[in-house]
Each structure stands twice: as structure tokens, then as C-alpha cells.
């Protein structure tokens, strides 16, 4: 059943978003642009190597994934709660989830698990006042 | 507390940092030569981590050498070559030798280097690495395993004010600040208008005074390195008129110096800017000239510069 769900998810999300099956989908918070299609798999914004024309350092023919994510978050009629998550600090990928269904991981909350040290390092613990 | 941290958090002094040269053969001997040139000018010197995706002596070994040669190291860690375990090992290993300044970078891709066939890692990204550093500073590994006592750390990050998407770069600064970055070394930027907008943006976001901005300039001898940066370094765009200015000058080396000085003075005049990061590709007298022209007084004599003693933390801040 688990494999079946993962297969369905891959069939749907692969062609549309270039899903890489990371198993912890954040599409909604990145302007429906998959950050795992960034050659560096960056989940928190563009690197400093973006070309003058807005294209990728690694793949010169491709627009920077994060430029797309930024533009779409601004321009697309996405729910405000999704847009609000755009600047959240997304944790490092849990590599154990690769190839599993992010739908299942979402409903079981497995995709929200983070290591204890990461979880304890809140913005507040760094002395940031919001 | 490192000199860099002291100056940036307890004083209003302008700080100067520099990029240490990458070390290959004769590493320690060369390190000493480079260190001698830098003595007394800088509050921190970056121990680079496989710059431009080329293998060199390791960042941690270089940082220790810098420290032993009497300069204050800033340990660069990039995300390209090491997973989160190796990054934590770098931090802890360098801490063992008294390294306190750390700067987190995403890093150029492997395809920018001379071994493009290598596997790229990027197990973490720049902002995540800042948070990972903060976690260790708090006294925990990523897993939550305790580190007692926690190493003393002063954490920084980098940003490129000259690469698109320009307005979004400020939001990245906010993210890195929230993750624990206290200073920000900027990529070299040959567009003054972009640097102005970036610094104004950081100020308008309420981050001026919270995160110290340190723009970069580079000392070059002529138009060739400008062309090289423009064509070969990801994220650096050198406008044609800036290249032509040096290329067509009767004395290109002098014009290149004046250009660097001009960019340095412009950068230091921006809001929130607390210092300057210098990359020296010339290896001549213009490093001293630039520092002097910017009003910096060398803190020690050249003869003292040859000592291997590790200096007190606040030797330069007295």
C-alpha cells in the first residue's frame, strides 16, 4: 500500500513539478516550485552564483529554481498561509525519507521530524527578537 | 572572545578582514610569507574551504596555521564537499585549536572547479549551516548530543548583493540572522547601485546594527583578472565600462588600484557596513597602500610580524 501511494505520488508530481521523491514535500511554501530540482538541492533560497540573466550557475540554460519560486510566490494566487511560509528556515533533508510518499509522511507528521539539536535551536535561542 | 567579535559587538570600529591564499605545495612556508604581509592589518583572515571548487590544503589546517602564525582565523565552511557530520567535525576540530570565528557558505558548484566529475554534497545549505553552527555554539550536536563545554563561536555568513533576485537577498540576510549569523561577508560586487540598494534594504528590514555587513573588494593588476572574474566566477558581473576603464588606461595597474580604492570607499560609506573584506591578487605594495589610504594604521612592526607567538585576543583592540 505504501509503495502504491508513493508510485501514485510520483506519477502525479514527477511530470508536473519534476518531483525528486525526497519524501518531505515543501512545494506549497516555495511557490509550487520544487527546490530539489535546484542542482544544489538548496531548500532555503538561491545561492550566490545566479547568473546575470537569472539563470542557474550549474545549468546555464535553466532559470534559477529560486527565482521561479520567488516570482510565483509573489504572483500566483496561492493561499496566504502558504506564502507566509516562504521565508521559513527549512531544515536539512531527512535522507531516510528518500523514495517514500510525502503524502503519507505529511499525514503521519513524519515529515516534520527534526533532530533534537536542530529543534532546540529556535530563533529565540539565538537572541533574535521578533 | 575573538578580536573580530569584540570589535563588531563591543565597539564601533571599522574592521578589516582578508582572504588567506589557498595553500598547496610548501604550504607552511608559503603560509608564513602570506601571514607576514597580513600582520597588523587585519582583524580576521579567512581560511578558505576549497575555493572555487578546487582542492587545496584543508580549511581547518589552514585556520590552525593562520592562528599559529599570529593572525586571527575565520574558518570558512562550504556545503559542497562535506555532509553535516563532516561539517560538525570541522567546527569541533578547529575549536580544539582556539578558532572562534566561523563563516558558513553554500559554495560554488563542483562544475566551477577543475574536477567537475566530483560528487556534489550539499547535505545542508548556507542558512542551515548557520543554524547548525548555532546548535554547536549552544552546546549540542545536531543530534542533540551534549557538548560540554560548548565551544566559543562567533558565527557569520555570506551573501551576494550583486546577483539576482536582488530584493530577495535581503530576506536571505534576515533568515541567516535569525539562524544565528552576526556578521555577513559579501561577495565582490562591481555594481555600486546594487550594493547601495542591498545595504539600504538591510537597514529598512531593521537589521542594521544587528548583523555587521562586510563588503568585499579585490586588488587586481589589470583588466585580465576583471575579465576572468566576469567570465569564470559564478555570481560576479563586472560591467564593461569598469573593465574598459582599466584596459584603456595608460597605466592599467594604477587605474586598477584606484578602482579598488574607489569601490572600497564607496562600500564603507553604506549604512550598516562595519568593515571591509579584501582579496589580494596582486601581492605587491598596493595592499599596504590601500590600507593606508583607507585610514588604517598597522598595529605592529614588520619585525614583530615574523614571530610565531599566538597573540592575546585583544592585541589589536587596545
Description:
- The complex is a heterodimer of chains A (130) and B (318).
- Chain A is an all-alpha fold.
- Chain A contains 5 helices and no strands.
- Chain B has 318 residues and is an alpha/beta fold.
- Helices cover 40% and strands 14% of the residues of chain B.
- Chain B has a 9-stranded parallel sheet.
- In chain B, strand 3 (73-78), helix 4 (84-96) and strand 4 form a beta-alpha-beta unit.
- In chain B, helix 3 (59-68) packs parallel to helix 4.
- The longest helix of chain B is centred in the last third of the chain and has 17 residues, at 252-268.
- Chains A and B meet through helix 2 and helix 5 of A and helix 5 and helix 6 of B.
Percentage beta strand of chain B: 5-15%
The residue ranges of chain B in which pLDDT falls below 50 over 5 or more consecutive positions are 305-318
The strand count of chain B comes to 9
Radius of gyration of chain A: 16 Å
State the major sheet of chain B.
Answer: 9 strands, parallel
What assembly state would you assign to the polypeptide chains in this entry? heterodimer
* Mass-distribution shape of chain A: globular
Largest interface: A-B, 40 and 47 residues
Compute the separation of the termini of chain A in Å.
44 Å
Low-confidence stretches of chain A: none
Shape of chain B: globular
CA radius of gyration of chain B = 19 Å
In which range does the helix fraction of chain A lie?
25-40%
Examine the coordinates and then state which fold CATH places here, giving the name of the CATH topology of chain B: TIM Barrel
Query: Based on helices, strands and strand pairing, what is the structural class of chain A?
Result: mainly alpha
Mean pLDDT of chain B: 93
Return the CATH class of chain B.
Alpha Beta
Strand content of chain A: under 5%
How many individual β-strands of chain A? 0
Amino acid at each position: 500500500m505504501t509503495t502504491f501511494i508513493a508510485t501514485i505520488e510520483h506519477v502525479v508530481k514527477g511530470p508536473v513539478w519534476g518531483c525528486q521523491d525526497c519524501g518531505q514535500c515543501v512545494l506549497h511554501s516555495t511557490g509550487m516550485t520544487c527546490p530539489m530540482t535546484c542542482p544544489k538541492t538548496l531548500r532555503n533560497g538561491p545561492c550566490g552564483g545566479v547568473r546575470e540573466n537569472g539563470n542557474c550557475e550549474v545549468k546555464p540554460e535553466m532559470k534559477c529554481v529560486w527565482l521561479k519560486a520567488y516570482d510565483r510566490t509573489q504572483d500566483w494566487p496561492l493561499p496566504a498561509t502558504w506564502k507566509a511560509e516562504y521565508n521559513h528556515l527549512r531544515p536539512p533533508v531527512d535522507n531516510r525519507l528518500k523514495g517514500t510518499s510525502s503524502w503519507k509522511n505529511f499525514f503521519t507528521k513524519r515529515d516534520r521530524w527534526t533532530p533534537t539539536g536542530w529543534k532546540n535551536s529556535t530563533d529565540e535561542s539565538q537572541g533574535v527578537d521578533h | 572572545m575573538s578580536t573580530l567579535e569584540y570589535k563588531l559587538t563591543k565597539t564601533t570600529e571599522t574592521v578589516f578582514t582578508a582572504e588567506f591564499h589557498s595553500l598547496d605545495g610548501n604550504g607552511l612556508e608559503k603560509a608564513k610569507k602570506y601571514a607576514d604581509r597580513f600582520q597588523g592589518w587585519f582583524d580576521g583572515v579567512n581560511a578558505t574551504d576549497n575555493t572555487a571548487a578546487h582542492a587545496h590544503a584543508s580549511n581547518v589546517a589552514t585556520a590552525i596555521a593562520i592562528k599559529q602564525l599570529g593572525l586571527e582565523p575565520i574558518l570558512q565552511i562550504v556545503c559542497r564537499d562535506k555532509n553535516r557530520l563532516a561539517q560538525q567535525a570541522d567546527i569541533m576540530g578547529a575549536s580544539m585549536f582556539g578558532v572562534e570565528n566561523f563563516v558558513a557558505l553554500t559554495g560554488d558548484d563542483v562544475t566551477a572547479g577543475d574536477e567537475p566529475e566530483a560528487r556534489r554534497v550539499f547535505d545542508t545549505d548556507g542558512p542551515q549551516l548557520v543554524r547548525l553552527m548555532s546548535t554547536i555554539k549552544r552546546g549540542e550536536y545536531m543530534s542533540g548530543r551534549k557538548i560540554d563545554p560548548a565551544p566559543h563561536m562567533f558565527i557569520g555568513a555570506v551573501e551576494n548583493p550583486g546577483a539576482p533576485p536582488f530584493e530577495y537577498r535581503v530576506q536571505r540576510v534576515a533568515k541567516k540572522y535569525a539562524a544565528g549569523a552576526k556578521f555577513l561577508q559579501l561577495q565582490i560586487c562591481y555594481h555600486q547601485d546594487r550594493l547601495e540598494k542591498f545595504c539600504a534594504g538591510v537597514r529598512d528590514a531593521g537589521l542594521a546594527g544587528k548583523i555587521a555587513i562586510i563588503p568585499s573588494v579585490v586588488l587586481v593588476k589589470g583588466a585580465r583578472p576583471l575579465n576572468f572574474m566576469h567570465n569564470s566566477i559564478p555570481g560576479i558581473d563586472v560591467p564593461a565600462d569598469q573593465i574598459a576603464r582599466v584596459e584603456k588606461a595608460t597605466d592599467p595597474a594604477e587605474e586598477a588600484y584606484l578602482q579598488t580604492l574607489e569601490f572600497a570607499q564607496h562600500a564603507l560609506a553604506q549604512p550598516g557596513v562595519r568593515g571591509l573584506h579584501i582579496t589580494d591578487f596582486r601581492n605587491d605594495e598596493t595592499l599596504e597602500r590601500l590600507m593606508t589610504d583607507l585610514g588604517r594604521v598597522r598595529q605592529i612592526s614588520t619585525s614583530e610580524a615574523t614571530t610565531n607567538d599566538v597573540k592575546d585576543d585583544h592585541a589589536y583592540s587596545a
